[in-house]
Amino acid sequence: MIPIRDQIRTRRVPVVNYLLITINIIIFVFEWLAGATTENTALLSQLAFTPATFLAAPGNPGNLASIFTSMFMHAGWLHLAGNMLYLWIFGDNVEDRLGHVPYLLFYLAGGVIAALTHAFINPTSLLPTVGASGAIAAVLGAYLVFYPHSRVQTFIPIGFFMTLRALPASILLAFWFILQLFNGVLSLGMTQDVGGTAFWAHIGGFVIGVIVALTVGKGRKNDQYEPQW
Questions:
Q1: How far apart are CA 71 and CA 67, in angstroms?
Q2: Which of 1.20.1540.10, 3.40.1550.10, 2.40.420.20, 3.30.460.20 is the CATH number of 2-217?
Q3: What is the pLDDT of residues 182-215, one digit of tens each?
Q4: pTM of the entire structure?
Q5: Of the candidates 105, 109, 111, 91, which has an alpha carbon nearest to the alpha carbon of residue 17?
Q6: 3-state DSSP call for residue 72?
């Protein structure tokens, strides 16, 4: 399923979300120019997050930095496009709810938790990991809590064709999480991550996003939001 837009209007310009998308695109262009999108390059090894390397020396400044640098790197154009599409659709509303600076801190913290989850589930993995997926998964988890009744225009494959439907966010995001959990469980015990995808990073990010959103929402009246359609 491919979401294309949601129905929730923001009350303020999501400057942080725009900035995050812009930074991700700019860094990918530099990656591409430097050849770091191909496997086993020196730049990729230095800036990507590698679980076994990190856990061998978690206090090493380079290893700590790799948690953050890997968040802004992507393995290819499709990897970048998919992540930025989800961030574009769901991130603006989460920023609207949390505020600019709290949203930035939340996004980065979600990426950190996602990377650590991936490392602890795959402690011997020497496969370099890149991508904003873990941080974006935290955004998806928060969106599910904040706007469960929002509807999301989504392309759904039916055989060889695609149909456009407005799905409740609760169904779309729950399906996404169940898919990550299913693949994550399948990957347990394997010597390599399934298809090179860090499913447990997605799971860890999503769960922390839900927890933070539930905590923020405690004792606070739900924001009213106006649908666009």
A1: 7
A2: 1.20.1540.10
A3: 999 988 866 555 556 789 999 999 999 999 999 9
A4: 0.90
A5: 91
A6: helix
